[in-house]
Design goal:
Ntn_hydrolases_N, 19 helices, glutathione hydrolase activity, alpha+beta, membrane, Serum Albumin, Chain A, Domain 1, GGT_peptidase, 615 residues
Amino acid sequence: HFAPLPPPLRTPPKHTPQMPPPLKLPQSLSQRLLLLTFTLTLLFTLSLASFSLFYYLFRQIANIGNSEDDSLVPCQKCIHLSSGKKYAVASDHRTCSQIGLNMLKMEGNAVDAAVATSFCIGVMNSFSSGIGGGGIMLVSEGGTPQIRVIDSREKAPYAAHENMFVDNVIEAQIGGKAIGVPGEVMGLYTAWQMYGKLPWRYLVEPSVALARVHRVNGLVEVVLKSKQNTILTHPQLDGFRAVYAPNGQLLKEGDFVRNEKLAQTLQIIADEGAHTFYNGTLAKMIVDDIQEVGGIITEQDLKDYSVRVTEPYCTEFFGHRVCTAQPEISGGVANIMALNMLERLYSRIPIFSKNTSHKKNKLLFHHYTIEAMKWVFSHRMHLGDPDFVDVEEIVNNMLSKCYAGKVAEHVLDDKTLDDFHEYAPLNNTIYADVPNQGTAHFSVVDEERRSVAFTSTVNLYFGSMVLGSRTGILFNDQMDDFSTPGEYNAFNIPPSKANFIAPGKRPLSSMSPTIIYKNGDFFMSVGASGGPIIITAVMQAILNVLVFQQSLDVAVGGPRFHHQLLPPQLLVDKEWDQESIRYFKNLGHDLQMIDFGKHQSLAVVQAILVGEDGG
């Protein structure tokens, strides 16, 4: 896939001027040898230059990524800040960001870069996302406020039913039954068909080389260790062990990962497109991989899968237009409600707009933010797939500034409410999310200011942990994102009827990819990974930039907190100052301090921001 050879030089036009006298060749042997040596040296130099150019182009297209930089450990406290005048890619792996940038350098656009980056993340950080999962993508139209949402969330198989995990919830997390119908390949292909410029295979093939061999990074080692007992003992994980524990020992940082089956699968996708995954060469192999470990997905499930293309939800906040994913199953609608509430709550602070750095104002600001978190999570518990559940009323309320204002009236300035029932919008049905999900987010903006915000996931770390023996695909465990009747969580909270399993249904999600505009121009793209904490992490990143006007590294890398109503606990980064911690306690919160440098509990945020100079 290299640039074609230049066309042959055209024959110069005929002309009549006098020809110069013929060149007199050297007559002596020494002169002839000198001329021959000069000619050979010139040819060697030109050949070497041509080879160097050829090799550079090859590396641009197939960056196999085995340098020391590829072993850098992505973590919450590792804030990688960079800037550029033309375009940017922000992902949780440097090699994958570079592959995305390579697509932009090859005159691709933001969608081309996003697709290539996504395939790479699925290989390099397979615990978080990949072609065995799904996602939600926002794409803006060349810097304008026109946005499309491409929903490629997984679906429950046709053979699924709401009682399938009663008395055995672990099967919703590990093994074949945990797998939902994957949507990521179809979602990426749909985005490319709508907007892409480069040939499809250019976007996939860099990850083919990575799948064949790449080094384990530090974060992958940590996640592997956290799952060690399951990996080494579960009877359905032979395929996983063959790749990540090939000699009976888990791979460590710096070891080589070799997944030749996945490389072959990606090459087939590069050659044949997405249809091969759902109704072609790969479909039967995928079904055989899943069914041999007890899964219930059939070829018909794959054949009938489709993505949803919709409009975004948007709101005006502090002079900016904030747009997020429309599917009611995403965390986007929760953030819209939170921003609408906070806009009303901030008006209570007399000098807030004049002095947002005042310590007393900041503390009250944080209190309002925590209360907004609790209220939006109480509302979010009533959401589900709109194709199966009537969510029109609750969604309309969550999008309404008027309704947000009424809810804000229940927020007290001097304390938080102890009884979670006081936050219930409709009734007391509660759904408690499962934390620490394996999710990835990245953002891309190109030279024309077309932007992409894409959050993809396999759900929990390494998904179902089923790695196909035929395809090398690591499959999701999205069935765990549904609720199961009669199964209470660790805090004795009942599940949500709106999120019960049904054939073909999409589960509840926390994904919150967001694009923000200022005066009609692209201003910011942001999203996060980390289960339900995605919602509050994205919320705080937006507030830090739009309200406190912080630089991007401070807005993303500063201390955060999280409250999801249930359990009734406020997660607080240990880096908060003591005055703020005392303030949170005095409000009545039960605090759980989190070591930001050692855990992924407070989400990983990826963002792109347009600077004051337009870069």
